[in-house]
Design brief:
It contains five helices and no strands.
Length: 129
């Protein structure tokens, strides 16, 4: 057994933790075929996925920090920066491609955020009783 591989009980939780990204990728051709704004969907999904990847790096760095204040500061900066960048992406796609594209990007981001929030509750570590 590899030391870097997740334990068998952790594998489903890891797969479930990134279901939002999988759903966005799998839904892309379907959404484009039914006629949603391509610019809005691709920008919303693309920015979401890129920021999720950045979040992995932030989690990895935050886990190595010794100072709890530094860890909290880093995580808070990422959360606020992510919110700001998602809002800027919606504004830019609306200004560049129109109201429908902006609304599509916003709905993609809201859907992905809601799915990630639900999944984070399902996959959070449980405290032993």
């Amino acid at each position: 057994m590899s030391l870097s591989a997740p334990a068998p009980s952790e594998a489903p939780a890891m797969a479930l933790a990134y279901l939002d990204v999988v759903v966005l990728v799998v839904a892309t051709p379907i959404m484009l075929l039914i006629g949603v704004s391509a610019a809005g969907y691709l920008v919303g999904a693309g920015v979401w996925i890129v920021l999720r990847v950045v979040g992995l790096g932030v989690d990895r760095v935050a886990g190595t920090l010794e100072d709890p204040r530094g860890e909290i500061t880093l995580r808070l900066a990422y959360l606020l920066g992510r919110l700001f960048l998602l809002a800027i992406a919606v504004i830019l796609v609306r200004n560049g491609s129109g109201r429908d594209a902006g609304l599509t990007a916003l709905l993609v981001i809201v859907f992905a955020f809601t799915l990630q929030l639900i999944l984070s509750f399902l996959t959070r570590p449980r405290s032993p009783r």
